[in-house]
Amino acid sequence: MTDIKLKMDKVKIVRLEELVKMYKIKIEDFSKEYEPPIKRIERQTRIVSEETKKIISRFKKTLTQIKKDSGYDLTMKGRRIFFQDIETINDETEQEKQKLRERYHGLTQKGGDCARDEKEGIFVIRVAASEKEKNLCPMQILEYLSHEYGHTLGERLKDVFEEELKAYAFSSLFFRYFLGESLYKKDSSSYEEGIHKMAQRELGKILRAGLSEEVVISHLIKEKFGKAKPTDLFDFFLDN
To answer: Contact at 8 Å (CB) between 165 and 213?
Structure first.
């Protein structure tokens, strides 16, 4: 039993010691909990257009396809999506910005966010879709949207790295269904700082090792997701 426990302790998606050495960050930073504040979404700040309606329609259609295969309840129930200008999404106090920088190690600008409104019992998802610049990019919006939706799966994880890994795994899975190709599978030589970039790279390593997004998601939400079981990630690394 002790040998198994020692092996399980070593089998991590990514070892914190390696991250600390590579990115020169502090271990304790990973356990800092920070929930983005729930902001009242003013009607005049919402972007509603024919293009955003088409994007939502594509998003829901792809969710339905994933739901059919995964057996997981992927719907808009308990979730509300708002499109806003990127300036509005990034309109935080200096104290809030500092908390975000500490949590994500250098986050400068958000393309979206997701927060739990405990009062209404729903997730509020905001996505940047600036029509002022007249360069509304459906693919980029779907990437933001699927990432933020990924945060609503299972419980919110205390480890911010694993929480971002979960969101990126779902976004990659979404695009595998939408475009026929995993979004983050390709190798990246970029070593930019920040939790988001780290999570992208580590997901890529996992996918290139032969594991699927479903396996990563199942492991992190601790539930069966399609054919994947929560223990499949451990089983893979213990056998290899």
So the answer is: no
**Partners of 122 in beta bridges:** 117
C-alpha span between 123 and 236 (Å, rounded): 33
Task: Read off the pLDDT of residues 76-118 as tens digits, 9 standing for 90 and up.
Answer: 999 999 998 888 888 888 888 888 888 887 777 788 999 888 8
Q: Give the E-state strand segments of 68-219 in sequence order.
A: 79-84, 112-117, 122-128
At residue 137, the pLDDT reads 84
Where would I find the beta strands (DSSP E) of 10-164? 79-84, 112-117, 122-128
The Cβ of residue 177 has, within 10 Å, a number of other Cβ atoms equal to: 15
Q: Which residues pair with 128 in a beta bridge?
A: 84
Encode pLDDT of 53-70 as tens digits: 899 999 999 999 999 999
Q: How far apart are CA 159 and CA 162, in angstroms?
A: 5
β pairing state of 79-84 and 122-128? parallel
> Domain map of the chain by residue range?
2-239
Dihedral sign, Cα of residue 135, residue 151, residue 216, residue 4: positive
Predicted structure pTM score: 0.84
